[in-house]
Amino acid sequence: MTLNLPLLVVLMLLMTGGCVISITARSLTSSVVSMGTAGLILSILFLLLGAPDIAIVQVFVEIVALIVLLSTIRRETRADMSSSGLYGVLTLIIFALFLFVFMLHGSEIVRPFGQPVIKMGAEYIKASPVLLKAPNTVTATVLDFRGYDTLGEATVIFTAIAGVIVLLRIKGRKDE
Amino acid sequence: MNDKGMSEIVKGISRIVFPFILLYGLSLILYGHITPGGGFSGGVVITGGFVLLLLAFGKGYVFRILPVNIAKALDSAGALGFLAIALLGFLSSSFFYNLLPKGYIFHLWSAGTIILSNIMIGLKIASGLFVAIAVLSMARLIHTKEGIKYKQSRTTEEEDQ
């Protein structure tokens, strides 16, 4: 698969722009909308990088999250965000510089692309069409080879939804 | 004919599009081991369809199609079903052992327990996310003289009172 590098760079810059606007925007609505832009561009990036499974999830989760956030803003909030000022921007720049230097040093010890430290993935790719008869290696890995992890994720989601139900319950609630 | 929710154009389009969204989600779940997709993607797509109905028609309509209590039960059933598939492996050797016959590659009924796991995960994600969205849509903060009070309303009619 050939990567269209300029397109990827442009999309990444757009995504970063969306993130920056969502942090610095004055009104909550424009902040949420630019966050949604960043998420949708991220799903296009996933698709271009050859991960359609994640791209589908990203599109729909982003849309649902956008709907929830927008309806929350419309109904519950009146106040706008206050600007963080010069101090916040300076902190951000210093943090970004530290991160850049750190990653520059870290990139020297990263192994080349396609030569991971853990060789298990190659075995999964070889085994999934032969042993499991599953052409989609991602699903075969997630649900068979790494079933424990998926069970853990399912537990996390179950707990999160139980938490939402309990926090927003009506029975047995005491008004202060 | 009630006039809750959005305009008639949005309602008409949603009514036409909703079965196709459901079908796409189901195909993502069932063909998860052959094409890109799987339980999580398909479940999220199905939830997206229900959210579309929720926005277009209002709460009362959606909760008549899929009541929240049934969705809660389906959520638990999906989680327990996935655990049961994992425990099924003990019949042969170990936890998560894929003991069903594998069949032929590119056939729908192949890859052993993966398709069953996909169905269970899809059920769990679709109903669980729907419950979360539904509970969030029912929650209201009411500003009264004594302060802010919390309330849940199951239908749009209750809200107007």
Describe the structure.
The complex is a heterodimer of chains A (176) and B (161). Chain A has 176 residues and is mainly α. In chain A, 73% of the residues lie in helices and 0% in strands. Chain A has helices at residues 5-24, 28-48, 52-76, 85-106, 120-130, 137-145, 147-167. In chain A, helix 2 runs antiparallel to helix 3 (52-76). Chain A is extended and about 55 Å long. Chain B is mostly helical and 161 residues long. Chain B has one domain (8-160). Chain B contains 6 helices and 2 strands. A two-stranded antiparallel ribbon of chain B has the order 1-2. In chain B, helix 1 (8-30) runs antiparallel to helix 2, helix 2 (39-57) packs across helix 3 and helix 4 (68-88) runs antiparallel to helix 5. The relative contact order of chain B is 0.16. The chains are: A mainly alpha (176), B mainly alpha (161). At the A-B interface, helix 3, helix 6 and helix 7 of A face helix 2, helix 4, helix 5, strand 1 and strand 2 of B.
